[in-house]
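Appendix C reproduces, verbatim, an entry submitted by the partner laboratory led by Prof. M.T., so that reviewers can inspect both the input and the predicted structure.
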Amino acid sequence: MSAQRRIVRRTAVAPAGDWPAHWPPLLQRVHAARGSTDAQQALPRLADLLPFQGMSGIDAAVDLLQDAIARDAHIVVVGDFDCDGATACAVGVRGLRMLGATRVSHAVPNRIVHGYGMTPGLVEELAGLQPDLLVTVDHGIACHAGIAAAKARGWQVLVTDHHLPGSTLPDADAIVDPNQPGDTFASKAMAGVGVIFYLLLALRARRGVAADLASLLDLVAVGTVADMVALDANNRALVGAGLRRLRAGQGCAGLRALIEVSGRDAASLGTTDIGYAIGPRINAAGRLEDMGIGIECLLADDIGRARALAAVLHAINQERRGVQQQMTEEAETALQQAAGDPSPAVSLFDPDWHPGVVGLVASKLKERLHRPAIAFAPVEPGSAMLRGSARSIPGFHVRDALALVDARHPGLIQRFGGHAMAAGLSLARADLPAFREAFVQVARETLTTDLLTDTLHSDGALEAGDFGIETAIALRDGGHWGQGYPEPLFDGEFDVLGWRIVGERHLKLELGLHGKRLNAIHFGGWDGDAPPSRVRIAYRLAPDDYRGGEAIQLLVVHREAVGSPVPA
């Protein structure tokens, strides 16, 4: 089973407004097709940020923090075990100290031991820290039992989160979440790290101090990109400011060390580098070990200490890649055995899978099949409880789908939460067959043939003069690309002048167009058959970092034989 794909060209939009003279018309056209009418909209600045006053609950949250600082209370920032949660934790700890808090600690749940968020088990462990105020980052909006347990101990609880709430809110002392009912803040796509940063902005304004919170924007950028939230104008302003700091060598010691160990060039760092190199190394700690390692790296001020921790994260990530590869191969084997299954959604389970890696497996399945995918693993070896991670496609809100399953079959799902495109859940192993049937039924009611066809939105064909290093660099550096503001993608027909297999699954191509010979790479593109003499591809234009100099290459996203339907 593999995804059906089609190339659809974006509607051409003539650039209007003011653009830098050095921007090529192609870059202007790409931004215009994404709704930006001028350079200010394409690359928003910090001055364009939405005001924090529009966020519900922020005044009450500031009151709590002001009081805690005034009475020298012990504030414990409780993070989450992914990159957004880790960066949010680091931002919270650093920011509160900058704003006058002297007793600030941090904690993070262990994926295997505690599960997601503020649980009663985590609260019990936190008792040893003797907190006065708990500040959750990137979780809390659905942690009713854990927050109740904390309140029962006499602790105050401040929730900062960005996830969708359930039917009721937890009994926290204050909640800041742009997705809570009644919140009118325009940017609903903010990551957890962005929410805590906004709260710090509000606290700084109340306290009237001159703390340089902009120094935290490197962490905000990394967490925002890694969490794959939509890069609306507000998020692009945050990400852009953080990238400028990282490119100037002004990032915190931990991020500078992670850039080094991943072999990236800080001066040209982009969102792709964060998504594929920096974020995974932080995430790996929470998947296989303890996210405390990642947070300590981000909190380190000594570069030597940061490099030592970054090396540990790098090694854990290497292990993660091996585990992921094995699990993905096992998942693909299972799919081949069920090749005749026309289900619009897939749910796979293996008793030997690692619960920290199931999200990556689900993501791979979703990409390959272009349908919602859930991968399950035991909470711990031999456990009768399963933890699942879901990934979805446009047009299918997976968190709402889980809510519908829960409403139709009360008690089937033990716990769930998430977003439109990603969610997590827990259920009993014995209930997996019933859940599969219920989830597929919801998918069948929602997903049409059109939605199950992967649409690649192309910015059209490139002219002969566009295939140069200047254009490649302009496209790379001329936008903060990501979810909701996608990286430029082009399509065209090319002659195949040569090809070879790289590694086991990648296809290196030499393509001909307009008398030019162009290098291309199609990662995972080897399907066992030699490519035809002429192909239509969807691709990105990028500098060839391996060859350097003036070299460019085409990064092939999709390849099909000429004779397939012409792009719409």
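The chain has a mean pLDDT of 92. Additional entries are available on request from the coordinating office.
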